[in-house]
């Protein structure tokens, strides 16, 4: 599956318009980093990708099982350690409207780890760059 995202940054410091297909969002940096805090910063977008993909993947599985889960909450904390070239994603998942037993929770943990963004982040990643 190929995805194309285009980011355009003009002269307004760090205010970036991002387009993917027919959708658009704004990214920016916090005020203390020179931005205007008018959108998610790039690290928040990365954590958002994992959180939203996890929630959607779990919803697909839960719907298929016909479990009556009103809401899936996924919170992702991202800590970046540039000096050691390590990043740690802490993912906290909770469910509203149902009590799930240990076996169900164990299965849902496997499903969460099977989310496509989780798999990308835990695989070997290569970034190829060209200037045009």
User: Overall mean pLDDT score?
Assistant: 96
- What helical percentage do the residues reach? 25-40%
Shape: elongated
Q: Major sheet, described briefly?
A: 3 strands, antiparallel
| Radius of gyration using CA atoms only | 18 Å
Structural class: alpha+beta
Oligomer: single chain
What's the helix-strand series?
EEEHEEHH
Give the total of beta strands.
5
Q: What's the CATH class label of the largest domain?
A: Alpha Beta
Low-confidence stretches: none
In CATH, the topology of the largest domain is named GMP Synthetase, Chain A, domain 3
Estimate what percentage of residues fall within beta strands: 25-35%
What is the CATH architecture annotation of the largest domain?
2-Layer Sandwich
CATH-level-4 superfamily name of the largest domain: K homology (KH) domain
**Helix run count:** 3
Strand order of the largest sheet: 1-2-3
Protein name: Putative redox protein
Organism: Chryseobacterium defluvii
InterPro entries: KH_dom-like_a/b, OsmC/Ohr_fam, OsmC/Ohrsf
How would you sum up this structure, described in words?
There is one protein chain. The chain is of the alpha+beta class and 132 residues long. The protein folds into 2 domains: 40 residues, no CATH class; 81 residues, GMP Synthetase, Chain A, domain 3. It contains 3 helices and 5 strands. A 3-stranded antiparallel sheet has the order 1-2-3, with no helix packed on it. It has a two-stranded antiparallel ribbon with strand order 4-5. A hairpin with a 2-residue loop joins β2 and β3. α1 crosses α2. 8% of the residues are buried.
